[in-house]
Amino acid sequence: MVRDSAATKARILEAATAEFAAAGLAGARVDRIAERAGANKQLIYAYFGSKERLFDTTIETHLGRVLDAVPFDAKDLPGYAARFYDLLAGDPTPLRLWRWQALERPGALAQVPQAVESTLAKLTAVAQAQAAGVVDDSLPPEGLLDIVLALILGAAEGGVDGVHGLSGDLRGALAHAVRRLVEPR
Questions:
Q1: Helices (H), 67-112
Q2: Domain check: are 50 and 71 in the same one?
Q3: Claim to verify: residue 81 and residue 117 sit in the same structural domain
Q4: Does any domain span residue 21?
Q5: 99 in any annotated domain
Q6: CATH code where residue 18 lies
């Protein structure tokens, strides 16, 4: 019998995604991942080395799909925020994975080259928009981007959980808040 390692790895990552999104790194069980993937535990360790490395690979896989899926336009941060919110509200899995990572492996995201590259490009664009007078410059680009991303993630969590009192227009409220934050004074 010929084994298709690429297909097996893909099934393992899919199963790991569901397990880690639900239980985090500490709560996830390799047995459950193996069962869901239709693979044995030894294959998981052979392909990924450890549960921690499987978790990191799962995060990086989703990061790669989502990080730049929404085009970043520093001159339209409210629009970017609304579009990124739509993406996360449509599939909350990446958000859940990032939250688990922040809780269980703080700082690990800063070690992922793709995340670093994406962040640096966004910071450069924000600095240029600030220098052009299109975006308020009372906060440094790092602080402004951090706040915008925190608003997006917080709104997406509220929209996913349905816990908001904004008559269902969380997306509009988010765009309005970001607009107020970045409009030149």
A1: 77-90, 93-104
A2: no
A3: yes
A4: yes
A5: yes
A6: 1.10.10.60
Smallest Cα–Cα separation from 140: which of 131, 149, 132? 131
82 shares a domain with 125: yes
- Tokens 């917080």 label which residue? 154
One-letter identity of residue 137: D
- Whether the CB-CB separation of 130 and 75 falls below 8 Å is answered with no
Residue 61 counted as domain residue: no
How many angstroms separate the Cα of 12 from the Cα of each of 20, 28, 40, 63? 12, 13, 10, 17
Which amino acid type is present at position 91? Answer: D
Higher pLDDT, 63 or 184: 184
Give the model confidence (pLDDT) of 31-66 as tens digits.
999 999 999 999 999 999 999 999 999 999 988 788
CA atoms within 13 A on the CB side of 183: 7
Q: Which domain range does residue 102 map to?
A: 67-182
144-172 pLDDT, tens digit per residue, is 999 999 999 999 887 654 554 544 588 99
Model pLDDT for residues 111-146, shown as the tens digit of each residue: 888 889 999 999 999 999 999 999 999 999 999 999
CA–CA gap between residue 143 and residue 123 (Å, rounded): 10
- Find the CATH number of the domain harbouring 71: 1.10.357.10
**CA 16 – CA 116 distance, rounded (Å):** 24
State the DSSP H helix or E strand holding residue 173, giving kind and residue range, or none if neither: helix 170-182
Query: Same structural domain for residues 87 and 121?
Result: yes
